[in-house]
Specification:
Blueprint (H helix, E strand, L loop, with lengths): L1 E3 L8 H13 L6 E2 L5 H4 L2 H8 L3 E4 L4 H8 L3 H11 L3 E4 L2 H5 L4 E2 L6 E2 L9 E4 L6 H14 L6 E4 L3 E5 L5 E5 L3 E5 L2 E2 L9
Parallel strand pairs: 1-2, 1-3, 3-4, 7-8
Antiparallel strand pairs: 5-6, 8-11, 9-10, 11-12
């Protein structure tokens, strides 16, 4: 597994890699930290080669806007796309999940903006820990009103996760709440097909 702590560049990126390694090593897998902290490093052949050798890539939580800016149009992003094409797994924690979509939600105000384009047909909002249900619902409704009415907006609570399977269907994972609004109406996440 390759762990990219790029979104945590201004926090504790080494801690994020160690945390992932502790969890993954218990399952018998190995972790390699890909320590790109900025756009120039994300565009190096050496770091991209580490992702090219991985079957699983983990994008840790942190600054969505830094991740998007530093990863867009780089060799690392090219290798992440190649990973998905060859059937590998991409895991994105928290705000990193929002960056996968195009459009993505700008965390500074909830408006749609350009994301990485790895996942289309949906946009994602990650709820930060401590956010009330009412605040999360308002954030979801505000974003749903700003995007095209046919675009589902998926809101992930702190302990929630969604898997996009090989058939491009959503599968819920985790204990947290997953809410989806489409055209201002709540819909069942299991009925969303991204193909």
């Amino acid at each position: 597994m390759a762990v990219l702590p790029l979104a945590a560049a201004f926090g504790s990126p080494e801690h994020e890699v160690v945390s992932a390694a502790t969890w993954v090593n218990e399952a018998g897998a190995e972790v390699e930290g890909v320590m790109a902290m900025n756009r120039a490093e994300a565009d190096t052949a050496e770091l991209a080669a580490r992702v090219a050798e991985a079957d699983i890539v983990l994008l840790v939580d942190g600054s969505a806007m830094h991740l998007r800016t530093a990863l867009k149009a780089t060799r690392l992003l090219d290798e992440i796309r190649a990973l998905l094409i060859r059937g590998g797994v991409l895991v994105a924690e928290g705000s990193s999940a929002t960056v996968l979509c195009d459009p993505m939600v700008d965390p500074r105000g909830g408006a749609p903006t350009v994301g990485l384009g790895l996942l289309s047909g949906i946009t994602v909002i990650s709820h930060i820990a401590g956010e009330t249900e009412e605040t999360a619902a308002d954030k979801l409704a505000r974003t749903a009103a700003l995007v095209p009415s046919d675009l589902p907006v998926l809101g992930l609570a702190a302990d929630a996760a969604v898997l996009v399977d090989a058939d491009r269907r959503l599968q819920l994972i985790g204990a947290g709440v997953v809410s989806v609004l489409q055209g201002g109406v709540e819909v069942d996440p299991g009925q969303i097909n991204l193909s």
